[in-house]
Write a structure and sequence with these properties.
CATH topology of the largest domain: Lysozyme
Number of domains: 2
Number of helices: 8
CATH class of the largest domain: Mainly Alpha
Number of strands: 3
Largest sheet: 3 strands, antiparallel
Helix content: 55-70%
Structural class: mainly alpha
Strand order of the largest sheet: 1-2-3
Low-confidence stretches: 24-29
Strand content: under 5%
CATH architecture of the largest domain: Orthogonal Bundle
Shape: globular
Radius of gyration: 21 Å
Length: 183
Amino acid sequence: MSKLFKVFLAVLAVVIAILGAMGGYETSRRIKYPVAYSDFIIKYSAKNNLDPCLVMAVVKAESNFIPEAHSGFAGGLMQLTEETAEWTANDMGLKGDYDYMDPETNIMLGCRYLKHLIDVYGNTDTALAAYNGGMGNVAEWLQDSQYSDDGVTLKYIPFAETRHYVERVNNNWENYRAADSVD
């Protein structure tokens, strides 16, 4: 074998190794940060002027894209309670029967509710805290100087579950945005 051919084989081996590592990274990312129901997410994110990567991040944190997921009284991809789904459907003027557990309906209602919270609070982190911990709790926290300096943003979230939820959604959001810029 000539020296040039050996160099060629060595370079080829390095290129194959790099491509394999990149493919492994991509596969790992897609497993860790799945995307399903993207047509619905894109459609209802656009209708509500939301970043679809934020909606993916919420779905990931809430249900990991499992449409029949349940947690307490909440269910579906965006983990809506029946009461929240009903309030949102009424706010949207939805008439007749609807199944809030249906993936498209759940995403439609979840996006509208998330947008409502962002509009109410003017701050995504505060809205996420309300999405998880409830608007009543967030209203109390915003009035308490222990938790908020300005009545708009939370400097500290006293519920560990809600605090970790906001962190998790923001981490997911960052990863979905990074993946979106790569795709």
